[in-house]
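Here is the promised in-class demo. Please do not try to memorize the tokens; focus on the logic of going from shape to residues.
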């Protein structure tokens, strides 16, 4: 099946959590199924997650995870140092002529919403739970 890159990304998110306690919760499956099926044309005829096979994606992600875990220590240390050097640019700001530490400069990545406890939106795609009438003023 040919799918858009955005849909492929969502498939990867689901494949990463297949088999976990979170993915087996009925509310999570219901919410994710609804969000996931909205990404496809209704002529597809799919009505549940069981209509899709995520096996190859899951295996591919496991292989990538193992490859990353088995990298040499030197390579991992070099990558960590590069990340720290990159992040250092964003950790401090000038505020009222004083250097202040920024508490959180990382934007939460897109993914499947987890929430805490029995959150009613658990399993929804994060982009789908933001109300449509919210306006972001940037700049």
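The designed amino acids, position by position:
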């Amino acid at each position: 099946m040919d799918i858009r890159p955005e849909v492929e990304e969502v498939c990867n998110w689901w494949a990463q959590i297949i088999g976990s306690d979170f993915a087996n919760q009925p509310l999570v499956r219901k919410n994710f199924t609804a969000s996931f099926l909205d990404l496809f044309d209704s002529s597809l005829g799919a009505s549940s997650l069981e209509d899709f096979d995520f096996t190859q994606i899951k295996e591919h992600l496991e292989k990538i995870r193992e490859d990353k875990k088995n990298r040499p220590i030197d390579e991992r240390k070099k990558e960590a140092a590069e990340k720290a050097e990159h992040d250092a640019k964003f950790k401090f700001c000038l505020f009222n002529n004083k250097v202040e530490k920024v508490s959180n400069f990382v934007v939460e990545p897109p993914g499947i919403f987890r929430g805490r406890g029995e959150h009613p939106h658990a399993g929804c795609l994060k982009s789908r739970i933001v109300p449509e009438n919210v306006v972001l003023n940037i700049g």
